[in-house]
Amino acid sequence: MKGRIPIRIANKRAYIWDVDDLDKIRSEHHICGLLVGTLPHLSQQNVFLGLPAQLTPEEATLLVEKEYAVFVDDNNAYPEPSLSQFQQWNAEQKRYIEHQRAALESENVKSSEVAQLAVSEEAVRKRKERELKRQQKALELRRLQEGEGDCAVDAILSEPIPTPSADVQASLSNLRPTTSSAPAQYNICIAASSSSLEWYSPESCSYSTIDAARTAGIWDFPSNLQDRARYGVFKDLWEQGYFLGGAIRFGGDYLVYPGDPLRYHSHFCATVIESLTHTIRPMEIVAHGRLGTATKKTHLFCGWDDEKKTVSYVSIEWAGFG
Amino acid sequence: MLEIHPSYPALASLVEKYPAHRGSLFQTYNDILLAQQWRDVQVIDLGDCRRGALRGKRPKTATDPESLLDVIPCSLAESITLAWYRQLYLAVVSDDSSIVYYKLSPGIVKPSI
């Protein structure tokens, strides 16, 4: 199963977590998927969507059936790490912490160089002036308050205002280069994708056929005539080279694009009819045909023959008269 | 009362053969002939579908005025099949005498615009 794209299954839904896989699926297999990752603190927004990408049941089934991808039951792909694996992981974490500590120390040296500038005469003089002004203002305010008899403010202002210049001098001396004052703070790195961990083993829970996945209980599409009809139509249109998307905005099952949806508008809106003997009401033809014509699309009724496993198409358009 | 209408002679046999569809056939025939002003209008019997249909040519001012087109009338209350194997126009007739025409073509046919 080398080279096949892993489709990660969770709760019978198909996800792509790797951006390179998604690129391949779109550019080589003309299947788009839908990005469903959002911002954790603003999950209602839909401007910035990211990984994972969710594939519809038809898209995932087709990729596995055509042997471009395999299903991975990710939930069961993480066994307990062995002792040596864990020791190695632990050692790597320690190395990273040390690296951070070393980097922080060299930064301390740099920041003290910046602090040297603040000790220049010009800076010291200006600082003294500012503090003097602040003290004077505070005194005036106190006198006013005394006149009005506000006791609370009095209490605050009666505390001696510390001479800042002395403090500044003291703190500056602290910034001069020292060796052992680095604080014991470090970041712990959690890898964005757990599949990079040493003990991740998808081989035992990869399924290269729909039947195998169904037997394992992680996938169940297609499961009835309706599913088979939808999948049959999807596959037939895909095999003709079209890109397919969802058509809920246009009251259909699929939107059919002649090329990548980023570049083209869809020409067709497809509705799946479960069997060739299935009858429909003329109102449906009117409704679909009218919407299609108004949006410059043709509506496709796609009839699925469950015996012969073929699709027959009828294109609907407003006649232009009457 | 249908019998005294000027269009009755052309429709008589089909109206009697397929009484369930006589309403929509009658409405559509009059609309196609008189309102849409089609030429060379004939009434035909679709035995396998057990209904009548119309065949004719659009007015000279239409695009492609010489092609012979088929119109199948139906009522909003019916259920119809989609297993049509040639291009045709479906005339949907409703109780208030509104008619809408939709073009049905086999296969995946790109929009004409």
UniProtKB/TrEMBL annotation, chain A:
Origin: domain of life: Eukaryota
Ranges for domain tRNA intron endonuclease catalytic: 230-309
CDD domains, A to Z: tRNA-intron_lyase_C (cd22363)
Entry-linked InterPro entries: tRNA_endonuc-like_dom_sf, tRNA_intron_Endo_cat-like_sf, tRNA_intron_Endonuc_cat-like, TSEN34, TSEN34_N
Record carries keyword Coiled coil: yes
Chain segments annotated as coiled-coil in the UniProt record: 118-145
Chain ranges of the TSEN34 N-terminal domain: 5-74
Record keywords, A-Z: Coiled coil, Lyase, tRNA processing
Enzyme Commission number(s): 4.6.1.16
Keyword Ion transport (UniProt): no
Its job: Constitutes one of the two catalytic subunit of the tRNA-splicing endonuclease complex, a complex responsible for identification and cleavage of the splice sites in pre-tRNA. It cleaves pre-tRNA at the 5'- and 3'-splice sites to release the intron. The products are an intron and two tRNA half-molecules bearing 2',3'-cyclic phosphate and 5'-OH termini. There are no conserved sequences at the splice sites, but the intron is invariably located at the same site in the gene, placing the splice sites an invariant distance from the constant structural features of the tRNA body.
Record family assignment: Belongs to the tRNA-intron endonuclease family.
UniProt cross-references to PANTHER family, sorted A to Z: TRNA-SPLICING ENDONUCLEASE SUBUNIT SEN34 (PTHR13070:SF0), TRNA-SPLICING ENDONUCLEASE SUBUNIT SEN34-RELATED (PTHR13070)
Protein name according to UniProt: tRNA-splicing endonuclease subunit Sen34
Source species: Lentinula boryana
From TrEMBL, chain B:
Pfam families: Sen15
Entry's Gene Ontology molecular function annotations: endonuclease activity
Domain (tRNA-splicing endonuclease subunit Sen15) ranges: 27-112
SUPFAM superfamilies: tRNA-intron endonuclease catalytic domain-like (SSF53032)
KW Nuclease (keyword) present: yes
InterPro entries according to UniProt: tRNA-endonuc_su_Sen15, tRNA_endonuc-like_dom_sf, tRNA_intron_Endo_cat-like_sf
Tagged with keyword ATP-binding: no
Keywords associated with the record: Endonuclease, Hydrolase, Nuclease, tRNA processing
Highest rank taxon of the organism: Eukaryota
Stated family: Belongs to the SEN15 family.
Descriptive protein name: tRNA intron endonuclease
Species classification: Eukaryota, Fungi, Dikarya, Basidiomycota, Agaricomycotina
